[in-house]
Amino acid sequence: MNIGGLFRKTGVVFALFVLLSGRPSVLWAEAWKFGVMGDTQWTTADPSGQNPHTVPVSIIRQVNRQFIDAGVKFVIQVGDLSDDGKEISEEERVAAAQPLIDAGIGFFAFRGNHEAKSAENGYGAPGFRQRYPQNRDGGFTKSDGGSFTVGSNFSSPVKISRDLDGLSYSFDFGEGQERARFVIIDNWPLPGRLVANSTHYPSGYTIADQQPWISAQLDKHNRKTPHVFVLSHQPLIGEGHQDTLFSGFANEHPEWQNRFFESLQSNGVRLFICGHDHIHQRSVITSPDGKSKVEQLIVQSNSSKFYTPKSLDDTNWFGQKSREISVSQERESVGYYIFTIDGPSVTVDYWADDHGHWQSDANFPQGAGRADTGVTPQFHFVKKERWSYSLNGKQFLVPQGASYTVVRDRFNGCEARILDGLNTSESRDASLDSTGQGRPLTKVVNTGWIAAKPSRHSGKNPAIPVFQLSGLGESGSDHTDHYVLSMSYDPATVRQKNIASGGFGLVTQDAAGRWLNAVEANSGGAATFIDGPWRRGYALGSHGIDRKHHRAWAVLNHEGAFAVANFSAH
Q1: What is the CB neighbour count within 10 angstroms for residue 144?
Q2: Residues 411-434: b if buried by 16+ CB within 10 A, e if exposed
Q3: What is d(CA 539, CA 550) in angstroms, rounded to the nearest whole number?
Q4: Average model confidence (pLDDT) for the chain?
Q5: At residue 5, what are phi and psi to the nearest 5 degrees?
Q6: Half-sphere exposure of residue 287: CA atoms within 13 angstroms, side-chain side
Q7: What sign for the dihedral angle of Cα 94, 95, 101, 103?
Q8: What is the pLDDT of residue 477?
Q9: pLDDT for residue 497 is more than 70
Q10: pLDDT value of position 458
């Protein structure tokens, strides 16, 4: 879902503020980025010698380079830092992160089940705590001896147990409206505390044990950060694994689940991020009581191992997959994520290699018995998916065959709504039922707004809100279904002759940062002005003004940022 420069302040905000206000209006601090990467396990022979101690250094180096080039402030890895979890292996993973630190980029991590697999080394906890002191203070040391700090307000649930210090932790980063809190949950065994459950992944301090600290860190009234993200290694409901964050299968401890889900939803958590499954999977998960939901991102593999989703009819789901709505899925690839926080908006770019369909374990990358078996290829990363949300917008779930007309939002007296359009996608994921059918993918349509201040300069149009719209496109596509977007305008700000001449209407921004008639960004269709309201049957590229109801409309097949303005002003 490529949206161009949808939320770039230097483009969308500055250009339109100057265009419509006569001057820029600085509302937020600087936009910034962070990276997320998945499990790093080398699970096969290593003929190239580039992946010592079960750490896929040959993959990590390539992903590190992408983070450095993207200019992220820090990277978070979602657990399983090596395959065998041995101390020497975990040291190797620390060394593989040093290029990030030398580039001034922080690196945060947490344990997965592969760190916590053996009582012989205390389930990896003492060594992990020693190797990652940044989880307690944000301090990093470069190879040349220089140092820097990333984050502030570090906290761990030490009132629950001192053993959790630096294992479960939270920290803040950013300024003003871009400030975000990261809450990281470690529920793995600890020396002296192992809680067995019905799966073969025991716990230490469970979600129920840690919930008071989790709730306190998420509390929107006290945390003083507009944005918040929650991360753990285990999913809420997985694809290849059937254990969950709640110390059992997906049907167990519903009271823990309900309280956890409620703490996320009531405090504005829009995204829960996890690993474990070595797959790119976006889903919307609902709590057992049906009262709360959150979008879950399972992070793509950075390993020589890939999982195939288990059948939806597998008895160990205990019927709980009905609580999951699948949004996007990609298997058997190597990828990473760039998050951009810009005012109230968050944009996530999912990048993965353009080859994909890699084979797993002893067959990595393209089969056994080949000259390149067990040798990591040179990846060519491409953007596979982009999605966005805004804290001042809304979210709409639109199943296949359903209408986009549910999309409707209002901000500072301006209303935007979709008048027509259907989700015509027929895409399915690879989570199959007994008939071999995957799940139809649902589209998550998000809206948002960029506010502007009125101009003090006479003769200038008053500033108007910019409407942000995303989620209508197919993954990997530059265009969307055909739909009709309508936005209201103040009739006192436009001359009637501009309407009659077709010089006023919906505008959008192109890749070069120019604002233009919104239909000019379509793929196909012809720009056709109509002085009147939209009517069913108008073709792609039609645009016009409903003078009676003071609304500009256009038939589009792209997403982006939209406003109502004089075309002549561009």
Answers
A1: 7
A2: beebebbbbbbebebeeebbbbee
A3: 21
A4: 92
A5: -95, 50
A6: 20
A7: negative
A8: 80
A9: yes
A10: 36
Tokens at 291, concatenated:
């009262």
Percent of the chain with pLDDT over 90: 86
**The dihedral of CA 502, 506, 510, 515: what is its sign?**
positive
The Cα–Cα gap between 459 and 469 comes to: 30
For residue 468, which of 448, 486, 451, 483 has the smallest C-alpha distance?
448
d(CA 450, CA 241): 40
Region 56-63: mean pLDDT is 98
Measure the CA angle with vertex 58, ends 55 and 60; round to 5°.
Answer: 70
Q: What is the 3-state secondary structure (H, E, C) of 122-151?
A: HHHHHHHHHHCCHHHHCEEECCCCCEEECC
| Ranges 20-29, 334-343, 347-356: which has the least confidence | 20-29
Is the pLDDT assigned to residue 24 strictly greater than 80? no
The predicted model scores a pTM of 0.93
Region of residue 369 (left: phi > 0; alpha: psi -120 to 50; beta: else)? left
The CA angle 462-341-349, to the nearest 5 degrees, is: 115
Helix (H, G, I), strand (E, B) or coil at 161: coil
pLDDT in tens, 352-382: 999 999 999 999 999 999 999 999 999 999 9
Q: What is the pLDDT at residue 459? A: 36
Q: For residue 369, what are the CA distances in angstroms to 56, 363, 365?
A: 20, 8, 11
Query: Does 394 have pLDDT greater than 60?
Result: yes
Sign of CA dihedral 186, 188, 191, 197: positive
**How, if at all, do strands 32-37 and 74-77 pair?**
parallel
235: nearest Cα among 255, 249, 225: 249
Q: What is the per-residue pLDDT for 22? A: 34
Residue ranges of E strands in 331-441: 335-342, 345-353, 381-390, 395-398, 408-411, 414-420
For residues 389 and 344, what is the distance between their CA atoms, to the nearest angstrom? 8
Distance, CA of 291 to CA of 26 (rounded, Å): 38
With beta carbons less than 8 A apart as the criterion, state whether 233 and 274 touch: yes
Give the β-pairing of 551-556 and 483-488. Answer: antiparallel
Name the pairing type of β-strands 227-232 and 180-185: parallel
Given this model, what pLDDT does residue 5 score?
42
Determine the Cα–Cα distance for residues 471 and 480; give it in Å rounded to an integer.
9
Element of type H or E holding 101 = helix 87-102
